[in-house]
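Tokens for Glyoxylase, beta-lactamase superfamily II. Go.
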Amino acid sequence: MNQTIRNTQETNMNLHNTTRPGGPGPQELVPSRYALKIGEIDVMVISDGVLTLPGAMLAHNADPAVRAAWLKDMFLPPDAFDWALNVVVVHSGDQTILVDAGLGSDPDLHLPRAGQLSKRLEAAGIDLESVTDVVLTHMHMDHIGGLLVDEVKERLRPDLRIHVAAAEVAFWEAPDFSHVSMPPGFPDALRATAKRFAKEYHNQLRTFEDEHEVAPGVVVTRTGGHTPGHSVVRLASGGDRLTFAGDAVFTVGFHHPDWHNGFEHDPEEAARVRVRLLRELAANGELLVATHMPFPSTGRVAVDGDHFRWVPAFWDY
Ligand SMILES: [Zn+2]
């Protein structure tokens, strides 16, 4: 493997690594972006923030004592789990592609630490006007909500293309929540947000069946499982490869790939998708980035029998 991880001053996205004195908005002490190159493709992971959710969301088919033991082993509190929320910006050829869009805002859900996307894009020197394509791994609110924030929609180009699996759009016309296990209020919020998104952006939607090449070396592939149209984005250039797995893989999924996440609409299929993907990534050694893995969510998968292990990439900057 020869993935070259470089800092962004070498890329053509014209990014700033330092805080900007006198710039707009509060300056943040913790970095919210991490850039790397996959061959000719520039990739930047950007944090939309953190979602604090009940610990039970990690697995509703697990013995609570086993779940509590996992959290304890990870030095985490027993009752709440902070989920990272990452999006990715990809620059390939003359296209700038935003993969997922973060939470946006919904005050009723009490998730004030997420929904930072527009501020953090700006801090990274990425203009919303420069985005030519959006790819959605699926239409849960924490992946589309950022597109519904007022100032975001106004600044996006009118000819923006939004790529999403046809099965995902169809699913949200009459979504099945019978196999999920979400906190109160979430199913209604997810339904309402997906509906609003489909209404506001139907002219921009470019649906695909199973696979679509969005830009040179940037392919979105439907996996199903988490939602019927859930998709992953695969980058390949110059012998380097990276997969953005969306919600196919969570932090707990390495130790317990068979645990059913509370947000999975078909949890058994989601577990099969997860194991298949982890085995493939372990075999080919490519980089993995996933929405809810701790920022900067960049690493590789090791496997020993039925046990997977997350191996974070060394920061190179
Ligand atoms: Zn998610």
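Residues 140, 142-143, 247, 291-292 surround zinc ion (CB under 6 Å).
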